[in-house]
Amino acid sequence: MEFGIVELSRLQFALTAMYHFLFVPLTLGLSVIIAIMETVYVMTNRPVWRQMTKFWGTLFGINFALGVATGITMEFQFGMNWSYFSHYVGDIFGAPLALEGLMAFFLEATFVGLFFFGWDRLSKVGHLTVTWLVAIGSNFSALWILIANGWMQNPVGTEFNPMTMRMEMTDFYAVLFNNVAQAKFVHTVSAGYVTAAVFVLGVSAWYLLRDRHIELARRSITVAAAFGLASAFSVVLLGDESGYSATHSQKMKLAAMEGMWETEPAPASFTLFGFPDEAARETHYAIHIPYVMGLIGTRSLTAEIPGIAQLVDQAETRIESGLIAYDALMHIREERENSDPAETARFEAHSADLGFAFLLKKYVDDPREATPEQIAQAAQDTVPRVWPLFWAFRIMVALGFGFIATMIYFFYLASYKGMRYPRPALHLAVWMIPTPWIAAEMGWFVAEFGRQPWTVDGVLPTAMSVSALSMTEVALTLAGFITFYTVLFIIEMGLMLKYIRKGPFQDVEETDAWVIRHHERLAGHSSADAIAMPAE
């Protein structure tokens, strides 16, 4: 593959996005977990739950601050490296990104300050309300970003304006309630909940292995296991919904994820394992599970899922239709207000395929001059790289089922074994801490890499979206971003490890006194039960 300005710009955006997403899932999940812990504190008035809220809240605060720092750069890149993309979609992105800013920098950031500095200034219920508002603000902040991203995957509620050469919003509610955006939101948020649950589980297990902060660790594992179990099931179920929506809006992505080179008889099987060969257009040593892909993708046993070869043929047909739209567009722009109504009608009849004609700009300045060979090659370009998608998807799914098994096991120990955890299980929990981040990054890779060669699926090719920059300019900013983000990541890891090693340092005396009284009460109940039991 030739490495040019488009590829370098994509690499820069991918690295900054994936760096940023190291912080996002933990923020989403921890905000809800600390709200649950404080709710228990308000209901029971037990100091240990207040100490837990403050301790995990400290780690949340570190992650939140650095997540904001890395997130600001993301929106700057739209205008910096992707100027034509910004022009093309600015009318659609303006509203959700503005609302995301309001959520993140006004609602969320304001209540984060009250969470940390309001413990002794607010009532218990007042502070609990603040904590839940932090969680709600964090999650709604993610909603608006995912609405924008979901529109890139499934551009609804908009139309192309031939005079301005940009997409314009026609139905805000269609954009807001886009089925792809809603599926991505709940799936991403649930993945963040799993990330936080595994993090809390692993850190608590580390404390138990070192016989430190026992009361905090045991209760934290209970919360993490219950919350993580529900979230892990949600991730799998909502991921299934994403697969169903992809069948209707992103057929090529779904076929590439499955390595489905040809259309199979309904219902399609799911490829559990295999080695995709893009040159030979087949998957070697494939192990199939009958019916599963058909059920996931179509919710039926009779509907087909088109294969890559069939979709390439459809793309070639759409390119030819798009050329009609492009020719009409050029006549409309030449005549402006005096354009022939017949040209306008011709454009509107084929405007849905205009983006496919734009694929030819990679090969020729005027798509109308493209040769049949170039049209065929542009149709082939609609196929993303198969083997990275194939394996990234399977790594993500395997880890997802692993989280379900782990949470079931720890939930069982917490509920039925008196919170007694075998040391091998605790070691496993510690080693699992990085895995939800791996799964989340694989998920984003599938979502974004699988959309190629489109920035906006079926509408705007990636090759048209970049700014008119030199390789040197993009390379220098890429190096700067990598350096800056790496420094922030090192700071994040250093601070998190420092406070994890330090452990809970607030409300120590009050909590220790309560723990002593609690154990005395438990011992008293045990003695009373022993006296009440008749001798055998």
Describe the structure.
This protein has 536 residues and is mainly alpha-helical. The chain has 20 helices and six strands. It has a two-stranded antiparallel sheet with strand order 1-2.
By secondary-structure content and strand pairing, the structural class works out as: mainly alpha
Shape: globular
Q: What's the multimeric state? A: single chain
**Rg calc:** 27 Å
Describe this protein with a few key phrases.
single chain; 536 residues; mainly alpha; two-stranded antiparallel sheet; two-stranded antiparallel ribbon; 20 helices; 6 strands
Structure summary:
This protein is 73% helix and 5% strand. It contains 20 helices and 6 strands. Helix 11 (308-335) runs antiparallel to helix 12 and helix 11 packs across helix 14.
